[in-house]
Design goal:
351 residues, alpha/beta, Oxidized Rhodanese, domain 1, Rossmann fold, five-stranded parallel beta sheet, 17 helices
């Protein structure tokens, strides 16, 4: 075999987990937007260098830009070899890619091959990977989804986390989206990923599931925060069998108080989010809710939000979006302790 070996992502995907390293040679800003799962960022040109080379190309000429870029690339590759790969054996096999599979990954892959490593360069680069993921999500694998339904605060996310911990197959879209899926669902100090990164994370989870086993997923809307769930996947989930999770109102209030502690410590951000509900509930009701928050009467506020906002919205949407809810398996939780979640998870996961 002659190295570097040049392969498309379609040829690479079945053995993606067999590489000893996946190396993204793009700039840090490109990497941050999205990347192949498990890839480490080893830029051959950082963001400032890319701008400088591009400016030189436009204002001076291609020859001068290539000379400048070659020196930068050589220095950066040498730095990566010294810092990261001096201890790698001869049979260490990396996959290298850049934006289009051209000069940046080609330079790195060529030097690696000259050293003697059996390096694979991704033909078409990240663009080829992205096209592959987009096509895969347009026709997702047929899976035996079990949709965990239930009103806000009924413990759906906690149950999914417990199922995952005991070895069940779980697609936790809220976890992948870094959002709890409601107007108050943003996570403090944790921005959502880009749409492309969200889709990559979904694809990465789907490819690892065993189609012969059930996959537990929450009854999400089409959007989780600012991110869209791929349409074909959402259609499959909404046509799947449902589990109706039941929990008392008092326990739901308690659970939400625990999960949204960041709002109980400072009423300002909470009141700002409540303001977005004014078109649904009117300014007077919103002002009343904001007053409860400002006075620290959080259990009253949570109970009111459940009764007047979340529960009616759930009732309106669940039968329309999940037609098999009428035949759902009813699962009653006696409480929200870890033991309660564990018992419920074991009742669903028989293997």
């Amino acid at each position: 075999m002659k190295y570097p070996e040049l392969l498309s992502f379609a040829d690479t995907a079945p053995r993606l987990d067999q590489f000893d390293a996946i190396i993204d040679a793009r700039s840090p800003s490109e990497y941050a937007l999205d990347h192949i799962p498990g890839a480490i960022n080893c830029p051959v040109l950082d963001d400032e260098e890319r701008i400088l080379v591009g400016t030189t190309y436009k204002q001076v000429g291609a020859f001068e830009a290539r000379k400048m870029g070659a020196a930068m690339v050589a220095r950066n590759i040498a730095g990566h070899i010294d810092a990261l790969w001096q201890d790698k054996p001869r049979d260490w096999k990396p996959l290298v890619y850049c934006w289009r599979g051209g000069n940046r990954s080609g330079s790195l892959a060529l030097i690696m091959a000259k050293i003697g490593w059996p390096v694979v360069q991704l033909e078409g680069g990240y663009k080829d990977f992205r096209a592959f993921v987009s096509a895969a999500l347009e026709q997702p694998p047929v899976l035996d989804f079990r949709v965990v339904c239930g009103t806000t605060g009924s413990g759906k996310s906690r149950l999914l986390q417990t199922l995952d911990a005991i070895g069940a197959q779980v697609l936790d879209l809220e976890q992948l989206a870094c959002h709890r899926g409601s107007v108050l669902g943003g996570l403090p100090s944790q921005p959502q990923p880009t749409q492309k990164a969200f889709e990559t994370a979904i694809w990465d989870r789907l490819r690892r599931f065993d189609p012969a086993l059930p996959v537990f997923v929450e009854s999400e809307s089409k959007k989780v925060g600012a991110l869209r769930v791929p349409g074909a996947l959402m259609e499959q989930i909404r046509a799947s069998a449902c589990i109706s999770l039941q929990l008392s109102r008092a326990h739901r209030v308690q659970l939400l108080m625990e999960d949204y502690q960041h709002y109980t410590q400072d009423a300002g951000p909470l009141n700002e989010q409540l303001g977005y509900l004014a078109t649904l509930h009117g300014r007077d009701k919103i002002s009343n809710w904001q007053g409860l928050a400002s006075e620290g009467r959080m259990p009253e506020l949570v109970d009111a939000l459940l009764a007047e906002h979340y529960d009616p919205a759930y009732t309106r949407s669940i039968a329309r979006n999940f037609p098999r809810i009428a035949d759902a398996l009813v699962l009653e939780l006696p409480g929200i302790a870890d033991a309660d979640m564990l018992a419920a998870a074991h009742s669903l996961h028989k293997g």
